[in-house]
Amino acid sequence: MLNQINGLHHVTSLASGAQANNDFFTKVLGLRRVKKTVNFDAPHVYHLYYGDERGHPGSVMTYFPFEGAKRGTPGTGEVSVTSFAVPVGTLGAWEARLQDLNITGVTRDERFGQSRLIFRGPDGDVFALVEQDDPRTGWASNGVSSDMAVQGFHSVAMRLHDTGSSAELLQFMGYEEEGTQGSVRRFRMENGNGADVIDLEQIDTNPARQGAGSVHHVAFSVPDKAAQLEVRQALMDTGYDVTPPIDRDYFWAIYFRTPGGVLFEVATDEPGFDRDEAPEHLGEDLKLPTQHAHLRDLLESKYLAPIED
Ligand code: ZN
Fold first, then answer.
1. Domain ranges within the chain, ordered by starting residue
2. What's the 184 CA to ligand 1 centre distance in angstroms?
3. What separation in Å is there between the alpha carbon of 270 and the centre of ligand 1?
4. How far is the CA of 93 from the centre of ligand 1 (A)?
5. So what's the architecture of 8-303 in CATH?
6. pLDDT value at position 132?
7. CA proximity to 121, closest of 262, 8, 208, 16
8. Rounded to the nearest whole angstrom, what is the distance from the C-alpha of residue 251 to the centroid of ligand 1?
C-alpha cells in the first residue's frame, strides 16, 4: 500500500462558458480565482482555477470552459458529485444564500451521519456542501463570511458499474474503507490534507458521455516529484498505464485511467500557484504557458473574451 498520497489535489471539469463559470465559483460559492490560464492542449480555451487563499492542494476546482459546449450525459464511469466542506452549523445560511441567488436543485440530506446540501452548477454539475469539523481556513469574499466559507473539498463521489476494482485501487493508493450506506462505499485517507473522502456508488446504468458539467478528471496530491515517481512506478508495477510526468506550470502531473473509467491524476504540491504571481494578485492576469506565450495577442483578441470580476 502506498503512503505518498495526501488526499485530493484538484478536480477538473468541463463548462460551457467562462463568465458563468467564474461567477458561480467566485460570486456564489465565494472561492478565490487563483489562476487564469489556458488549456495546454487547446490554448484558445481558458483554464480557470478556484480555491482557497493560496489554492492549497485539496481546495482547487478547475474548469475548461469550452464556449457553447453541449452538456454531458450522466452515467457510470464518472464523478457524480463534487463535495466541499463547510463549518458545522452553516448549511442553513448556505441554503438561504443559494436560494437567494437562484441556484437550482437545492436539497438537503444526510450521508454517513453528515448533513449535506446538494445543488447544481451552471451546466447542471452536481455539487454538495457538507458540514464537518475542519481546521482549514476558507476564503471570505462576495458576501461569504469567514465563519461560513468553503474550506476545501470534502469528497468526490464516483458512479460506477462495479466498485470492486476501484475499491482495490483506492486501498492500494492508501485509502481505508470506512463504511457503507445503501449502494455507496466510503473510503478515507487517514492523516490527509482535509480532502480525504472518496465515495464509490455502484449503479447499473449506461456509461456517461462527457460534456459541459462533467468532471474530466480527479487529481490526488503528493508532496513532490520524488513521491510522484514512486507512485508512478508502483502503479506501473501493478499493471496501470501511466503517463510520464508532465509539467503543468503550477504542479507536475501523471495520468492514468482507472478500471471504473474515471481518469485519475497524481499531482505534486510544488511549485504552487504563487510561482508566477504575487499571493495578493493570484488569478488576476492571464498567464500563458511558455509554449503558447507567442499567441497572446491572437488569444486575447479572438478567443478569450475578458472575464468580468
Ligand atoms: Zn488536473
1. 8-303
2. 25
3. 14
4. 31
5. Roll (3.10)
6. 95
7. 16
8. 9
Burial letters 130-163, b for 16+ CB under 10 A, else e? bbbebebebbbbeebeeebbbbbbbbbbbbbbeb
CA of 244 to the centre of ligand 1 (A): 14
- Calculate how far, in angstroms, residue 34's C-alpha sits from the geometric centre of ligand 1: 15
Cα of 97 vs centre of ligand 1, distance in Å, is 30
Q: 12 CA to middle of ligand 1, Å?
A: 6
pLDDT category of residue 87 using cuts at 50, 70 and 90:
very high
pTM, rounded to two decimals: 0.98
Give the DSSP letter string of 56-101. -TTSEEEEEE-TTPPBPB--BSEEEEEEEEE-TT-HHHHHHHHHHT
Name which of 135, 83, 152 is nearest 114 in CA terms. Answer: 83
How far apart, in Å, are the Cα atoms of 291 and each of 42, 154, 272? 12, 35, 19
Total Cβ atoms within 10 A of residue 292: 16
Which SS3 state, helix, strand or coil, does residue 20 take?
helix
DSSP state of 277: S
**In angstroms, what is the span from residue 11 Cα to ligand 1's centroid?**
7
CB distance 223 to 231 below 8 Å: no
**Cis omega (within 30 of 0) for bond into 245:** no
Joined together, the cell numbers standing for residue 131 give: 458540514
Take residue 215 and report the three cell numbers written for it.
468532471
- φ, ψ at 122 (rounded to 5°): -65, -25
Q: How far is the CA of 221 from the centre of ligand 1 (A)?
A: 11
At 268-283, the pLDDT tens digits run: 999 999 999 999 999 9
220 CA → ligand 1 middle, Å: 9
**In the Cβ-directed half-sphere of 15, how many Cα atoms lie within 13 Å?**
26
Per-residue pLDDT tens digits for 291-300: 999 999 999 9
